């Protein structure tokens, strides 16, 4: 896949001296779902705001399908749809009017058929004549997405799109995002819901203190950084791990009734087979065992805390 968005050596330092972004380099592929993760204040919203032309960069370049966001602002911005965190809609306008108006802001001719398609996809068609002020928070969030899609963008930024909405609506939005991706739209998602990134994303980037510390395919990331654990339940408590088992770096539970073996999936067969043999040689039996694997949340927390 070719890159539709290219960020090169991008930095942002505010007048106060605060450095929000530090030499960001990032390439987003056409038609992918890219999740940008990071703690509060990491620079996620600043990065999105610069790409969307809301905030000026201090240095660096951003190309949107080859268009420079500074020199060719109109062409670049017309390719982008943004759903911000804040619900900013005209309370007294109808759903139809506000979404249609958003399309006109980008110089696009009226296209009632497209607006109807978007509203139906977002389950807003029966609300098209309702004023925004009468809608629930979840419906207002859908209107924000409809506004962002009104001008048929090629890139859609979703900045915490499901914050404050119920589980059912989150699932509906995930299905919508998958549908958009299937039509070729590139999705860039920021979220505090790790399960959202784990379920949705093709690739994941982690930003901490204004720096991109990792960009990786989700599957590869889980494979490289995720840990698997084999937990053995013992029939009798141990006071310590026998020296003969020291090579396996086993962890003994506080009550002495569980041994935990952490291993790399690539060495799974050899490592577990050797462990079981050594347990038998040491005369240690177990009554049950089960395996667990790190979630993306575990990996993210470890990255933020600087753990290996």
Describe this entry's structure for a reader.
- By secondary structure, the protein is of the alpha/beta class.
- 33% of the residues lie in helices and 27% in strands.
- It contains 10 helices and 14 strands.
- A 6-stranded mixed β-sheet has the order 6-7-8-3-9-10, sandwiched between helices. A 4-stranded antiparallel β-sheet has the order 2-1-4-5. The chain has a 4-stranded antiparallel β-sheet with strand order 12-13-11-14, with helices on one face.
- Helix 3 packs parallel to helix 5.
- The mean pLDDT is 84.
Q: Topology, pairings included?
A:
Blueprint: E1 3-13, E2 19-29, E3 33-37, H1 44-51, E4 59-64, E5 67-68, H2 73-78, E6 80-83, H3 95-105, H4 112-121, H5 137-149, E7 155-159, H6 167-182, E8 186-190, H7 194-200, E9 203-208, E10 211-217, H8 218-225, E11 228-233, E12 251-252, E13 258-263, H9 268-281, E14 288-293, H10 296-304
Parallel strand pairs: 3-8, 3-9, 6-7, 7-8
Antiparallel strand pairs: 1-2, 1-4, 4-5, 9-10, 11-13, 11-14, 12-13
Helix pairs in contact: 3-5
Compose a concise summary of this entry.
With about 300 residues, this protein is of the alpha/beta class. It has 10 helices and 14 strands.
The order of strands across the largest sheet is: 6-7-8-3-9-10
* Low-pLDDT sequence parts: none
Kindly state the percentage of residues in helix.
Answer: 25-40%
CATH architecture of the largest domain, please?
3-Layer(aba) Sandwich
Terminal-residue CA separation: 31 Å
Query: How many helices?
Result: 10
Please describe the biggest sheet, giving its number of strands, its sense, and whether it closes into a barrel.
6 strands, mixed
Number of spatially distinct domains:
2
- CATH class designation of the largest domain: Alpha Beta
The shape, in one word, is elongated
Return the average pLDDT rounded to an integer: 84
Radius of gyration: 25 Å
Count of distinct strands: 14
Topology as a string of helices (H) and strands (E): EEEHEEHEHHHEHEHEEHEEEHEH
């Amino acid at each position: 896949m070719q890159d539709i968005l290219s960020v090169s050596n991008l930095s942002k330092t505010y007048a106060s001296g605060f450095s929000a972004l530090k030499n960001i380099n990032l390439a987003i592929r056409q038609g992918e779902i890219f999740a940008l993760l990071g703690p509060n204040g990491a620079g996620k919203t600043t990065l999105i705001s610069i790409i969307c032309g809301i905030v000026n960069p201090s240095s660096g370049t951003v190309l949107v399908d080859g268009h420079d966001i500074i020199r060719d602002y109109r062409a670049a911005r017309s390719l982008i749809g943004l759903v911000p965190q804040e619900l900013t809609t005209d309370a007294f306008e109808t759903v139809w009017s506000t979404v249609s108006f958003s399309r006109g802001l980008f110089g696009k001719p009226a296209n009632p058929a497209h607006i109807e398609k978007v509203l139906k996809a977002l389950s807003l068609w029966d609300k098209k004549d309702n004023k925004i002020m009468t809608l629930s928070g979840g419906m207002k969030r859908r209107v924000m997405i409809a506004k962002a899609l009104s001008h048929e963008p090629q890139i859609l930024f979703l900045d915490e799109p499901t914050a404050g909405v119920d589980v059912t609506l989150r699932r509906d939005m995930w299905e919508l995002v998958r549908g958009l991706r299937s039509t070729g739209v590139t999705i860039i998602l920021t979220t505090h819901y790790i399960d959202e990134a784990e379920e949705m994303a093709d690739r994941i980037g982690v930003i901490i203190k204004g720096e991109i510390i990792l960009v990786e395919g989700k599957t590869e990331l889980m494979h490289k950084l995720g840990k698997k654990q084999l937990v053995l339940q013992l029939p009798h408590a141990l006071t310590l791990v026998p020296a003969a088992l020291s090579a396996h770096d086993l962890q003994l539970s506080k009550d002495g009734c569980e041994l935990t073996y952490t291993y790399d999936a690539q060495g799974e067969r050899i490592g577990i087979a050797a462990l079981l043999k050594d347990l038998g040689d040491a005369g240690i039996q177990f009554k049950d065992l089960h395996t667990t694997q790190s979630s993306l949340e575990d990996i993210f927390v470890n990255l933020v805390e600087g753990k290996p």
